[in-house]
Design a protein that fits this description.
344 residues; alpha/beta; seven-stranded parallel sheet; 15 strands
Length: 344
């Protein structure tokens, strides 16, 4: 089976591509290699993938509709996993058009190109726990309202879900959206809190903790995310199952949305303490108020994905952070060329 992975040089895209290649899939990767964070890290991920003979790659921006359509016409994937997006909540307030161009225009271009391919069996796309926005009820369930996003990033992800549903309905194309909950692990994104914490703690610099540490996140290890994606991509919604609301049929599209999290939210200070123990160093802490666009807590209800595909995350925070620290200290070791890379 040929799988197209967009954002293949990104954190999740790299791990998914690597896993699929090891299992015998043919993987075509796309990425625009933008400079939102250290491009060296992206190219180093790619160098790992390019050792596989069943991996092909092209630098391409989803916002370039004609080039994207030509590529997909030639590639003819059976499954598309869209992980390309402009990430980051706070950056969306500094550069909002980057989110519109990548997350909305690029996504619409991808759907337009995909509906023209008669080989496509399933399109899986990344959504985010951020769509739950100002919801105070926890755990978050897929049936909860997502009408109150608190960041532009979250709004673009909700837009993706709505656009995907309309295309699934109009063109009878199976689509599944996955709401990821705070993904972490080796080869991760340098803009994520745990990555910044590790860098600062190792350097003996203070770490900034927002909302005075009164935050809770459903940290999900990358291997669990990849396993969830793989199960979903191999099981497209084949039959139309109408969603019911007050006895009325709301949708008969071959379309699903699932949470993909750990279902074990952890207090931020507990997470930092586990990271400190893995590093063998104690952090100097600066406590700050809540930042615009942040939410106090994320917590995934995982019943739907477990019932549909038997998926259950298995990696503890302790094990996951120890694996991250082992990778981080090796990748940024002083006696390796990778030490020149900036974890910015």
């Amino acid at each position: 089976m040929k799988v197209l992975v967009t954002g293949a040089a990104g954190f999740i895209g790299f791990h998914l591509s690597q896993h699929l290649l090891r299992e015998g899939f043919e993987v075509a990767g796309l990425d625009n290699l933008n400079s939102y964070y250290d491009v060296n890290l992206k190219t180093d991920r790619l160098s790992q993938l390019q050792t596989h003979r069943n991996f092909s790659f092209e630098v391409l921006d989803l916002a370039d509709g004609p080039s994207l359509e030509r590529f997909i016409t030639q590639c003819k994937p059976r499954v598309v996993v869209n992980l390309a997006a402009q990430a980051g909540v706070r950056y969306s307030m500094q550069n909002p058009l980057a989110y519109i161009n990548s997350n909305i225009v690029g996504f619409a271009n991808l759907l337009e190109a995909c509906v023209k391919q008669n080989t496509l069996e399933h399109l899986v796309f990344a959504s985010s726990s951020s769509v739950y926005g100002a919801n105070s009820k926890t755990p978050f369930a897929e049936t909860d309202s997502v009408d109150h996003p608190v960041s532009l990033y979250a709004a673009t992800k909700k837009s993706n879900e709505l656009i995907a549903h309309s295309y699934s309905h109009l063109y009878d194309l199976p689509m599944t959206g996955l709401r990821f909950f705070t993904v972490y692990g080796p080869w991760g994104r340098p803009d994520m809190g745990y990555f910044k914490f590790a860098k600062a703690i190792i350097a003996g610099q203070p770490i900034e903790i927002y909302n005075h540490g009164q935050m809770q996140r459903d940290f999900t290890y990358i291997d669990d995310i990849v396993e969830g994606i793989k199960r979903v991509m191999l099981n497209p919604p084949h039959t139309s199952v109408a969603e019911q609301s007050n006895g009325k049929s709301m949708s008969n599209a071959r379309y699903r949305v699932y949470n993909l999290g750990n279902h074990q939210p952890v207090q931020l200070l507990e997470f930092i303490g586990t990271l400190e123990r893995a590093l063998g160093k104690t952090a100097s802490k600066i406590y700050l108020p809540m930042q615009p666009g942040d939410v106090v807590s994320t917590y995934a209800q995982m019943d739907a994905l477990h019932q549909a595909l038997g998926f259950q995350p298995t990696t503890s925070i302790k094990d996951g952070l120890e694996r991250f620290v082992a990778w981080y200290t090796d990748y940024y070791a002083t006696d390796r060329p990778a030490a020149q890379h900036v974890a910015a």
